[in-house]
Amino acid sequence: MLSSSPAGSLVFWSGCDRDRAVFRPPSPDFPHQGRLRWRRTVPREGRDSNRSPVSGVRIAGQVPRHDGPAPPLPATRSGLLNCPQRATPIMLFSLRSPVGNTRGPVAVEQWLLGQLKRLDAATPLSLVWSSRQGEVGLSIELSESASGLAVEELQDAYPGLVVTPQVERQRDLESDLWTMTLRLAPDVLLLRTEEVFLDVTDQRAYRDPLAGLLAAIRCGQSGRTECTVALKLVPARHRRIRDHRRVIERVMQGFRSERWLWWYLQLLSDRRFPLRLCGRFLGRVAGGGPHTLDPNTLKTEETLFECWLTVTVTAPADAEHVALQKLADVRAAFGRFTDPVNRLTDRTGPVVKRLSRRSRAPSHVGCIGRPLGRSVLLSPSEVATLWHPLWTVDESVSRTVKPVFRELEPPVGLSSKTGTTGQTVLGRTCFRRQRNQFGIARDDLRRHLLVIGKTGCGKSTFLAHLVRQQMEAGQGIVLIDPHGQLAEEVLDDVPRSRTNDVICFDASDTVAPVGFNPLIGPPGANPALVADGVLTAFKNVFGFDEGSAPRLLHIFRNSLLTLIGRPEASLEQLQRLLTDANFRKSAVARVENAAVRNFWLTEFGRWHERERTQYIASLQNKLGAFTTHEQLQRILNCKRPGLELRTAMDNSQIVIANLAKGRLGHDASNLLGSLLLSSLHLAAMSRADIPEGERADCVVVVDEFHSYLAEGNSTISDALAESRKYRTSYVLSTQFLDQLDRATLAGVLGNCGSTLAMTVGPRDAEILCELLGRGLLATDLMQLPQFHGYVRLLTDGTPSTFSMTTQPPPRWRPKRAATIRRVSRQRYGTARR
């Protein structure tokens, strides 16, 4: 190509790189001029490695340097350079269509109109249909500089659309490429657009033609054969639009015969320039007749794109028949968008490319198979009909790439600062490209947090992160673990500065267990409340209520009220109180409660000996299962005060209760957990004797809390409703909501201000969908991947639901469990004699 240059020079520009040959006439100052010299104006590394041979001859030599800026690269007749120059890196994004999408191609049409000013010959946009490893889906390819805003606008147009950057893949050394370029002839006529595919009989439902095209592109699951269709487009140049309008004007003026009209359209749509010249001549000599076309079938839009549609099949060298059949299938699938008068054809036929090792390097989809020949003109509505996220009625297309889960946008005022005072980090937001760390304020955490999810979804990892943060912040923490693994992990995470603050309540410890006496409540506690808490715990294990065993519970309650308040009171003395008349007489003499004393002196004494023996024997049988448990005896009948929950809460200590069912037994673990929950509630309420501002915060984390609740057990519901004012926060974890009775479930869901839902079952999903809102479906909660969830988070007292990911488990943990356990035994344990 020739262009003018200063000082009368002629500059020859090549088509592939900014090299130029400069011819200067001879002069006295420059006697060496008069010969053609070659100059390179850009470094070699800035050029495309897959460029075509340079047009022109390179002649070595030297010329005086020209300090001015180099002219821009010229465009060829096709609108793009023969070898594309990449001023900025090219990005390939994979799209996952949202589940339940009800927005059709119109949204893509508006999105394309918004990209007009950002696209040019150097930075085109490629819309891609591809099948890899048996999955079929959509992608977009565009420059890195324009990708940010373009992707966000597309996701705004299709809520729930997941866009992820796609890593370039190494091409198989044993595969070849078969390429085919499809052209629309004549391109002055419209393709079938959205209105054609509306089903009027079915409430105007949209029957998406893209489903059939994706089915044709889909390849086998082995991955040996892959198919890619790339539609590369740039805004149409002024000259192309001018020629297009002239063609429409000539068609509307009419032709002498219909045959001349179609010959005219076909010749002007040909990729060869001489034939297009013949078409222009034909329009002049054969025009002016009665034969014309319906204006509704012509592209009269002001906005048009120059497009190249390339089909590429990658297959082993010995599978040529498979590749050719796939090309034929894709070409036939595009027929649903055309009429008999305008067709997508392949004039040159498939081209096989034997790839060299150099060309097998990773390459972007849009550059596979260089678009050849003249471009075709398509309107935004036509492009949108060809390429758009699948409609909801066509989600049954097999092996389509679907979103892993639906992403919900977080609130604007969500805190994301690391280490903010009073903040507990819960995870990271998961919405589009946002992966911001967020947390919950201390005041919002006092309104409690509920965590629901099946086993293996990441609940324990989430709880371990939460406990670790409380320990590092110097806050009080109580962890009740019915399995033991979480407790062991937390012991390793205890900071060195808080070693002496840990009370390791390991129920299976046989060396020096920490004692716990539930009959000795906090100072100033009401004995009736202590008795109710112990009675509720035993009712959970016994499995009876007031209706099934009223007399048994009556005896048990009065026995507890008789012993509570005595310094030496313990559960071991219950058996003696029922069987030893002398001990019972001395114990009753110290009772100050008149109702309790009258029970023993009048009601209990009036019973017949046989009835008394029957009731006492039944109660002894149930108590004996625990009072004879050797490990429970060491814990519940320990003389040395070990675990004092009120003291631990006031001093911000760390209580780690390991109630492993595999070591202690199912019933014994449930009994200890129920007793701990009742005592924690009493300890929290007893802090009413100090001002609220002086109460230290304490976080109670209960894993599998349903294990410690029976039907009618209101311990948790009461604690959630009353503990906020006592600066006690509850974090409850469970696998299934069906494990809770109706009253407890209503109390938990009603009093927990924040809820984290991970992978759940179908019945729980229906309940949580109503609680979380935001249009979530039951399938969204049932198909969550590991360490993902939806959280209904309180932010300054206002709930909002969004998607999140929890923090991953740490790669390394310090082995501090043995040291923590040894210090805890020395300070709070009782050595076995």
UniProtKB/TrEMBL annotation:
**Any idea what this protein is called?**
AAA-like domain protein
Q: Which domain of life is it from?
A: Bacteria
Q: Which residues form the AAA+ ATPase domain?
A: 445-833
Spell out the Gene3D superfamilies in the cross-references.
Answer: P-loop containing nucleotide triphosphate hydrolases
The organism named in the record is Calycomorphotria hydatis
Q: Where is this region: Disordered?
A: 41-70, 801-833
Compositionally biased tracts (Basic residues):
812-833
InterPro entries per record:
AAA+_ATPase (IPR003593), HerA_central (IPR002789), P-loop_NTPase (IPR027417), T4SS_component (IPR051162)
